[in-house]
Amino acid sequence: MDSTPLYSDLVLIGGGHAHIHLLKMFGMPSSENPNGSSDLLPGIRLTLITKDVLTPYSGMLPGYVAGHYSYEDAHIDLSRLCAFSGFRLIHASAKGIEMDSNGKSGRVVIEGDRTDVRFDVLSIDVGSSPMKVGGGGDEWVTPVKPIDEFGRVWEGLVERVGKGDKGGTFEVGIVGGGAGGVELALSVQHKLKTLHPNVKVTIVARTEIMSSHNEKVREVFKRILSERSVRVITHTSATSVTSNTSSSPPSKDLHFTQSPAAPTPTPSPLQFNEILWCTSASAQGWLKSSTPLATTPSGFISVNSFYQTSIPTIFAAGDCATNPSSPRPKAGVFAVRAGPFIKQNLLNTLLGEPLVPHEPQSEFLGIISTGDKYAVASRGEEGCLEGAWAWKLKDTIDVTWMKGYKELPEMVDDTVMPPIVLAKGIKAMAAFAEAPMRCGGCGAKVASSVLNRVLKKVS
């Protein structure tokens, strides 16, 4: 008996920003595929493997921490997206990839006693983790990434501070002085000050704060941090964290070393009630140890301009991937913009068509919030503007982006009879024609190829 599968498997691992776009676009109707892209792929089974069904949007994390957004506001329901796009959802964690003898198809190995998931074409978008505490003590810190796990921990911290003793001070240490660490410190301070009368926040940075941004932006944040009484310790590398049960209340002690460039020597260790770890991104260990994929020296999956890995039928995007010939910062904006190209290249691989390259822009607008409804806009070597208007702009962008994934259209093109209706005969066809169009007002009714042809005629 012929054991060849009757279908091909397109599998996604992870619910990162690139995959979120792909999931939605597979369900979006257009004039060329009125029932969604998945209908263009007869014989293709679509699968998403994810350990979290509610996936966070990184752009709203600081606002969520500050209390401007609820947990629901800042998270997308992947089960709903999968139902919309025709993907089956497997709620589990991947722990490895094994290739078949043909070198093209393979299996995703699932944690626990779950059955492996076979694939013909695979895409990975699982984000990153912060660098580990160098000398130990990971159990005493709260990592910000993966951000899907941070949200749950943050909810617990807020509850503990709200119900805890309000005497003395509540000390929070933020390890990491990049834009993410500074934004988080200001957001944490803004929220916890509503729960505790004496919250103190300290940033511990390996170099200067905001070192990847221009000098104007750095000076603005130095001023804001000073105005908010956020302590900043620069040129300081954390070495380990220990639990100090002899202090009252018990503390988490941050041990560190300082470079000669440190402006003021600081005695080690520093004592905190909570330590949040927001250092540079590092790769999830299983990507290097349990897959046959080529990785960078840092452990990120190596991809080319097509988001294609060392195995042509496997793609990757977002923080878990790096293009060594054109590296970009580990920022959500690059994952979002990779989405359309990942979708197109997965389809083209399944259809045997040429792949489409993508060269992300080298500069991008960053809008960095300051805890309250105020923000700083940063771009390139000179761009720096600040004000409440910048927060409003960021809020509009983020809320609009999220709305696009929460308010999904229910559409059927009333000019095209679905095959199942045609098969049921004239009565079913008449009933279908009389039914009102189920339209959520999406802007994707005209496919790009059709639009390009019309524009060429009128230009």
Automatic annotation (TrEMBL):
A GO biological process held by the record: aerobic electron transport chain
SUPFAM superfamilies: FAD/NAD(P)-binding domain
Keywords on record: FAD, Flavoprotein, Oxidoreductase
Domain FAD/NAD(P)-binding: residue ranges: 9-331
Known cofactor(s): FAD
Location of the region described as Disordered in the Swiss-Prot/TrEMBL record: 237-266
InterPro entries (alphabetical): FAD/NAD-bd_sf, FAD/NAD-binding_dom, NADH-Q_oxidoreductase, Pyridine_nucleo_diS_OxRdtase_N
GO molecular function, one term: NAD(P)H dehydrogenase (quinone) activity
Amino acid composition bias (Low complexity), ranges on this chain: 237-251
Database matches in PANTHER family: APOPTOSIS-INDUCING FACTOR 1, SLR1591 PROTEIN
Protein name: FAD/NAD(P)-binding domain-containing protein
Annotated source species: Triparma columacea
Organism ancestry: Eukaryota, Sar, Stramenopiles, Ochrophyta, Bolidophyceae
